[in-house]
Amino acid sequence: MIFAAIADDFTGGTDLAGMLHEAGARTVLTFGGGGVPDGYDACVACLKSRSVPPAQAVAMSLEALAGVRARNPRQVYFKYCSTFDSTPAGNIGPVCDALMKALRTPFTLAVPALPVNGRTQYMGYLFVNGVPLAESPMRNHPLNPMTDSNLVRWLAMQTARTVGLLGRDSCEIALADVLSDADLERLAGEYAEAPLLTGSSGLGMALPRVWRERGWLAAHADAAELRRQGAALILAGSCSAATLNQLERLGGSQISVDAAALLGDAEEEIARVLREARRQIQNSGHAVVRSSQTAEEREASGLDGRIVAEELERMFGAVAAALAAEVTRILVAGGETAGAVTAALGVDAAEVCTVIDPGVPAIRPAGDGPPITLVLKSGNFGSADFFRKALERTR
Question: Within this chain, do residues 136 and 262 fall inside the same structural domain, yes or no?
């Protein structure tokens, strides 16, 4: 195996896998510690470690490292979000520390930029579609609010290792400025043999070209076809501006979860959602279940945001499991929601089938997994018509 990645959430993992697939690498994903199947150029181990306590994130990442190293990859990659979702306490820094120690490497890159989706870094400052990160909607993230656009400063709070800018500072973890895909291509060529790299999915677009040039990447048959056509279920746990806009563009009848009702009587609220979802599927061929509030609305409601998020995860997982036999496609928005859904469905591994938008592939469970097509979308990813496009392209 050429490349093994450890992703700190599920949609982040599918994001990277989609980039690798598009660039010609046969790629498999594993979920929640599942074993790595043989016969792939690259694997991405998807964890739910982004928002857990740092020590737990480290333990999960080291366990995943042990699993992927069984396939003797040439390079290990730690995948996190292109908006650097973390807190001053972690988890990116502590996991980088642990992986560097385990792999016995004194240096690694940090490359969060993803120009194809509007994430660029200049002089250590991260921008989202030209807006400084701390002025973007990410400043209001319910779990990992990003309140400083200077990633050198942010990452330095999370680790005792020296952090600096690539090419400017002598350091152990170097953040690389990236303004275009050409910058990613240059970095891929220079660091394709580094034991450990870290960052967003950006390098996943560039590395396979280097592998092909060096004779590492063999030709292979096309990925498996998508599953049979049928009804679809859209589960939107993200309250990001991008996802809210995509839902608005999709239009039609949509089921909003009542957060207060969910906290008061989860069983009754789930039953209501299921009744309405089945009615929508019967009437239009697909159902949309969404979080009822934006981050600002949740804050104004007085409800504990973390508790609401946890209950929403459980609810989305329960809805997915209950309706899995009645649909052939489940489209998910939000990393935490994606983790809950794949766990509820018992999906241990999956292969990329096609890519709908940059960083958002459709995947099919591998082996004995359920006969269903999954699309796991990061909240901030996808074009304005993403859900309509996904419904059309997964039929």
Answer: no
